[in-house]
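Researcher: First entry.
Model:
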Amino acid sequence: MKSNSQTPRWSLPYCTPIPSAPQLRRRAKAARIAAYVLLGVALIAPVVQFQVGTMRRIRKAEELTRLHPGRPLAGFKQHKGAIGRWRKAVRQFWGGWDIYQDPSKPIRHGENRASAPSLSKIEADRAQLHPNMPFVVILLTPLAYLPVPVMAVVFNLLKLVALLGAFWLAGRLASHEGRRIPDWVLGLGLVGAMPFIIGDIQHGNTNGFVLFAVVFHLWAYRRGRDIASGASLALAICLKMTPALFVVYWLYQRNWKLLVAMVAGLVIFAVIIPGVAVGPARFADLTGSWLDNLILPGLVEGAWYPIHINQSLPGVFSRYFLGKPNPNGDIFWNPDDNPYDHQQQHGWIAFISLSDGTVKWLIRVAQVVVVGLMGWAIGWRKLPRDDGRRMLHYGLVACGMMLLNQRTWDHHAGVLLVGSVAIWSAIGFGVFSRSLRILTMCLMLMSWVLIWVTRSSACKLIAAISGAGSDVGEYWGDLMQAYAPVFYCFLLLLGAGVILSVAMRRSSPPYARVRQKLSA
């Protein structure tokens, strides 16, 4: 492997070990081509699926409008994925509506409906509890005024570009002192993260862009560009609040220049730009509504989000320890969707029924343990910027983002690509004992089983084969997710990252130039 100074600037962030024997060389090249084809199919297939689903919903909406002229289509999801909801929210935002209102609360005083007489032509029902701050709504605005099929294509193509950029930069980050990682390390990392990335494409969400912003900020720091790194972190925080955990990491690492740049970026992105776009008074009103209804309930008030898809530590503990008839343990309830008195399906899986206060204390203790493990594994010493062990630390922070948040759906977890690649790089080349190498490899393989075998699609397939029907298969999938297999995947990655970070803390050098074998 060549040093960073000898490697051409245009080279790939990884290298491909090619055997010397002619027959093995042909097999290696064929395997490499097959891997690229498989990656392309894995990324393009959900984009095509998303587009087909969008067109079907458009045709269905047109058919319903033709059969029932003049009747609003409230209750019918006319667009596939989250961006369909956001299209409505963006238009109502510019029409003067407060898109951050809680349906169980009265309308805020500052809302101006009179300025939007054409909104009934856009959607019959109002947008409520839109998750993104006003700055992100402004970013989404050009997409919202495109025809729906074009909007879906442009959004997904931009996401594919962001994902490919994130893969590229992740390969750069995993290298130690400029040595290029082998392509199989990046491939194994993608195997662990791809279900989350595919899920985000299928949901039409922004987590692919969050992944790119997070990885770019880490890459910029590695290159010594603290201002660019801080600005990219600010953008990631605006897109999804969970990357704010990296602020704690940089405080712990005492990188003040990056933090100042991040604060400046937040002021520009989250305050100045939307304040100029909508005016100071309306910006203050909308931001207050967003904080009151979307951020503070989970961050400060300890609101419960027990729905089965929530794989965060608070979500899992609510389902495990709040039993019937406590609604805060109902595996089908998400307060963001509707008030509990509108809930139609109910279910509980609690192992033991405790009080809300007791479970909140259990959550706090568990969160302190997670943060303590992260701090112990990272340590107080500041590593060089191009030290490969830093990416292990970044992976720990990414695991913390998933575990500590109030709401974590599995398609939020694409950012775990950082940890997955770092762990496989350490397993392959880290200098530590053989027993720990086998242990961490087993942890990673177990995480693969949890995220691939326990998918809802697998439950639906089993139900279809057994003749139980699609509704039963969907229920099995919901029940499987309620027991939190993805949550345990997060724990396995956290455990592997902690073990490797501690084991390699005093290794000199921490990485060998050749792969470390499992055999004695």
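Researcher: Second entry.
Model:
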Amino acid sequence: MKYRLIFFILSNFSIVSCLLHAQNINQDKYKLAESYERNGDYKSALRLIKDLYQTNLKNADYFNALVRNEKNLNQYSELLTIVEDRQKLVQNMQQYSLLGELYWRTGKIKEANENWEAALNLYSKTEDVYKYVAEAQIQVHQLEKAIQTYKKGENKLNNEFLFSANLSKLFIATGNYIEGSQEILDYLSKSHDLPLAEGQIYALMSDSKSKEFLKNLLKKRTEDEDGNLILQMLYAWYLRTSGQFTDALDVYKRIDRISNAEGRELLQFADVSRSDGQYEIALQAYSLIIDMGKKSRFLASAMLGFARTAELRALNGEKPDKAEAQKIIGKYRQAIKEFPNDAIAADAMLSIANIQINYLNDEVAAKAELETVLKLFTNLPLIAEALNQLASIQIKADNLDEAAATLAKIINKRYKTTNPKEYEKAEFTLAKIEYYRSNLDSARAIFEKVARNYSSSVASEALDKYILLEQNKSLIKALVAYSQAEYLEARFKADSAFHLYESAARYCEGEPLSERIKIQICEFLIRIKDIEKAKLNLLDFLKNYPESIYTDKALLLLGNSYYSTNEKSEATQKYNEILNRFPRSIYLQEVRDKIRKIKANT
């Protein structure tokens, strides 16, 4: 008896061990098949999966893998036979849906419809059946059938919004903007997913007819549901996207009122409009907030936004005249008056100084403005910007020692962490001061340090200067003349700068540095608006240095010069020469843009 028990235990243990071993083999084989499938080797994957499926016909994982790989290989007839056989063992909504798909793919339309109908009738109270059947219909590009399937599901389950998200995608795919827009709005009212609704509405904006329909629909819905904030926001987005900015502003006024935003929504609209270059409507929106006075928490931002937008509007056309510049300054002064002890006042003063320097050429007034900022606002990070502006004025006035002392205030204080951009700018300007003083070794060391900070906004300029000084350190006389020429140009001493540039080029004739300086002379002439002289110099350069590393740049400058004097045919010729001769030029995109612009205006 005892021995029989032992034998029974050992026998069962052996059977279990064999089963576990077989199970492990199947798992390894399945993982290998998945690996083949991921790598696109569907034939190898299918060979393994078929073996596994034959050993366990009811295993859903094996069956689904078999379906995927047969589909990947477009073996629909073979797969249909397998699925028909499986139907005798397993019947569910997925099985009917798949059979319908495969019958359709193999041209058996009647059988396809029968299986889809069978699934919908047998499982009519189950939400998933409508998804399975519709997805199968989408797979065979029967989008209208899928739409009807989802609609039937909403009716059967008594939920009119149940499949709104799915239906809206199908209406978009079929270009049905009338029903599609209704589904989008219905789903929006349920989900409040505004970004999704915006993307879907945008997809329906295919032509003027659909855009007009959408506008009228959204307008009516927002009028009927005046308090529906999410709907108002969608309509405002639509109007702004379709370029109807005045109407959009009216809706944003309504949104601001509904949400008790005290100007916040108007400010966002104004800021976005300014970023998009829509200056007039931005100014109107800022004005509405300013009219609220201190009832709005966003008054200061609106006042600064208005002034900056007015400045950008003037710049977008051409350099503002003195009257326009003074008008903009007046807006900044208004902000300072309202918020005299706030960072807003300091920001406004910096903007005023910038206008005085760049548009009014009044550096005395700008210096006084900056000194006021430094006196009144000692602990703000933007003090670093004021110090950098002051240093630039001192450099132009040939006060390099004063400029260096001003910049040292940035370097020696906490601005490396509180205002890193201005800190890096200060380091770079200190290097330029050493360069202007012809202290070339000191300048090279600082330029190298600044260039190592790759994320810095001045890193590329610093690297350029470092390479210039490092590669040409034996050409001392040329570098000294070159640095002095750049210093004179920075101080607007055009005639003196030009002669020193020419001298610097002569001192290193035959060296690559000479070619660089000659190109810079051409750029300098363009900057001072001596276009005809620039053209002559560029033509001379191209004749004498046809294989220079600066040839593509010379062609670009020459093309730009021709364009500026309305010689568009000559400009196009030079731009095309860059495209043909220099397929890897860094100027290719700029050149293509300019050619397109010329063609558009021809």
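Model: Note on the second entry: The longest helix spans residues 2-38.
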